[in-house]
Amino acid sequence: MRRLLGTFAPYLITGLALLLGYLVLTGYLLPRMSEPRETSPAVQLSTAVATTAQSTFLPTPALNTPAASSTPATVPSLTGSSPAFTPPQGFSELENADQLERTDAKAAHALRALPWIRDGVEEEEREAAETLIFYAATDSSLFWDLESKTWLSTEAPRDLEEILGDVDNILALDPTSARKIVAMPFLDTLEPPDLLAMESLARLVHSDLNAFHWIMAHPNVSDGITDEEAPVVALLAGINRTNPALLETVLDDSLVTVERRDISLPLAGSVTLAVIRTQPGATGTMDLLEHAVRISEKLIGEPFPVQYVALFFEDAVVSSYTGTNFGTHAAILSKYDREGVDLADDQAGEIIAHEVAHFYWAGAKMWLDEGAAEFTAAVSEYARTGRPLEPDHYPCSQAANIVALEAQESTLGNEGSVCNYALGERLFFDLYRNLGEDSFRRGFRRLYLALEERDDAGAKPAGIDEIRQVFNEEADLSTNPQTEALLDTRPVVAELPTVNGWINRAYVSLLEGGAPVSAFPLSSVADRVWLTLEYSHDYAGPPQELTFEVVENYEDGFPYRRNSLTIQADRRYSGGVQWISVGPGAEQVWAIGRHWIYVYHEGRKVAEVQFEVVP
Questions:
Q1: CB 186 within 8 A of CB 226
Q2: Using CA of residue 205, residue 210, residue 212, residue 216, what is the dihedral sign?
Q3: What is the pLDDT of residues 507-518, one digit of tens each?
Q4: Which of 10, 86, 136, 581 can bridge 107 by disulfide, Cβ–Cβ 3.0-4.6 Å?
Q5: How is 229-258 classified by DSSP, letter by letter?
Q6: Contact 598/608 with Cβ under 8 angstroms?
Q7: CB neighbours (10 Å) of residue 109?
Q8: What are the start and end residues of every segment in region (Disordered) (predicted)?
């Protein structure tokens, strides 16, 4: 038989090769050119972006604003090529697994029995598996407490990695407390507030070990944290950072209320909302929170990033801010949660929406995170109240654009922080008015996805280069925004027909009742700058109030302040003079450049003043 095989082997090999070639050519072993093939990730992303339904809920950009000539093309992922596929590993291939088999066969058997280890350890599961092997070998009590948790068999790899990482951080500095925490009731199941409570404790143990020990010794903690107490424990690291005196208050169950609401979002599915207070609050706050969460997801077009959103109303925010998003929760000053208070009614929705937006926008450069959050909050308030979609902050007085801001960031101090908000939001508003809603929202979504990939890869904070890449350089971001793109170029109609009157003259002055100026240097502003309106009327009826809207605009075309004033028409007089202060707040500096003030009455522009601030 061997001799026969040796004789015919060459012929058999040749025949098999011809048969293989025929099968390849006829498409039985390789796909035919006309058959569909698996789409590459880049093409899939492009298709998804192009076919996503975009229901219009933003206002149409002004007609006198130049529209984008084309939709930005889809750009490649910012993280480069995908990593090579790593096949799942068996338990025995894990580091120290063989040694554990020899020293503690029972623990090794328990680990092998975990479903996500039994079916092969994926790359994203490896760190959790290695951590459990380490605990089994070095801390048997801790290991068996963890092994008894049902979630160890069922939780997603990211949640397991987070919870075990927090245990590891606490174990490194306080092993006794780590073991106590793992045995507490709130970790019998693993809900989002439980994960955040662990994160808060892990932050505390590294940022303030004394505070951590004080908290662990508190009667409401030492007797075991429950699921009901976990939402409050999640606040502790943020409170200790901003207002440690509140720790005693929030650990008293009788002084804290937690209002919860479960909602279902179109993309993220089930999300739990919580409003946590130490005193009575406004009944509409939960509605504002739900609205902000829904609009954020709708605008960005990606699932809301977290399953649990907590707002804590107390004076526990970073100094000089109205709110702070700590990741575990968002804290907002309690004065914005007061029933029937104008301050809460006017500003609470915007502040809540801003802090909610930071669940999407975090980890990039400050101007990008704050600018994106400000834009998202403006959209949320436009959808809720119809408030004009425009920047909320006075223009930056220290830098004309983002490139200039980054160049002098280290020297600007507190003013630089303000500029991050002012220039950041203006960048996104400028992109929106130039690209139009559909193109802008596609770019906004791609930016979020790109930043998420960068975060996962541990890259440096994203900035102007990433904006350019994602929005395909549709706008020249290194130059000033478009001058006069949104300015009101309609002629002034100064007539006040209801009182047979007119606005005779409008101008700005450096003193109330002072002489008109068309330009002034910063050094000449001692206190305020005043808008003066001189008016007259020929009116014989009963006293009548006329209401005017005063809109202040910067040279980038965006309003920065809206105010109102009233004029009283009375038959005893033939006219008068009205003053109103204009410009930035008391602690802000005038922005160098041209400014316009428009005065409106019943929708008509009845006065216009242009002036310039020079160095």
A1: yes
A2: positive
A3: 999 999 899 999
A4: 136
A5: THHHHTTHHHHHHH-GGGHHHHT-GGG-EE
A6: yes
A7: 12
A8: 60-84
Residues in the chain: 615
* Distance set, CA 453 to CA 162, 296, 306 (Å): 18, 20, 17
Amino acid identity at 102: R
Nearest-angstrom CA–CA distance, 94 and 121: 9
Can you spell out the DSSP letters for 322-334?
SEEE-SS-EEE-G
Q: Is the pLDDT of residue 580 over 50?
A: yes
**Inter-axis angle of helices 414-435 and 437-457, to 10 degrees?**
130
H-assigned helices in 151-257: 151-154, 157-173, 175-182, 192-207, 209-217, 219-222, 230-233, 236-242, 247-250
Residue 55 has pLDDT above 50, yes or no: no
Q: pLDDT (tens digit, 9 = 90+) per residue, 282-308?
A: 999 999 999 999 999 999 999 999 999
Q: Are strands 501-509 and 529-537 parallel, antiparallel or unpaired?
A: antiparallel
Query: Which are the contacts of 329, defined by CB distance < 8 A and separation ≥ 6?
Result: 196, 234, 235, 238, 276, 310, 311, 312
Look at the block and give the residue holding tokens 């954020």.
296
pTM of the predicted model, to two decimals? 0.81
The 501-509 sheet, strands edge to edge: 495-496, 501-509, 529-537, 575-582
Do residues 614 and 521 touch, judged by C-beta distance below 8 A? Answer: yes
**Using one digit for the tens of pLDDT, what is the confidence trace for 224-250?**
999 999 999 999 999 999 999 999 999
Report the alpha-carbon distance of residue 347 to residue 164 in Å, rounded: 40
pLDDT in tens, 173-183: 999 999 999 99
Q: Is the dihedral of CA 97, 102, 106, 107 positive or negative?
A: negative
Q: What span, in angstroms and rounded, lies between the C-alpha atoms of 121 and 6?
A: 46
| Tokens encoding 493 | 């109609």
Check whether 476 has a pLDDT greater than 70.
Answer: no
Do residues 550 and 562 make contact, with C-beta atoms less than 8 angstroms apart?
yes
Provide the token pair at 484: 């006069």
Question: Where is pLDDT greater, at 404 or 550?
Answer: 550
Scan for tokens 């700590």, then name that residue. 326
d(CA 118, CA 122) in angstroms, rounded, equals: 11
- 547's enclosing H/E stretch is strand 544-554
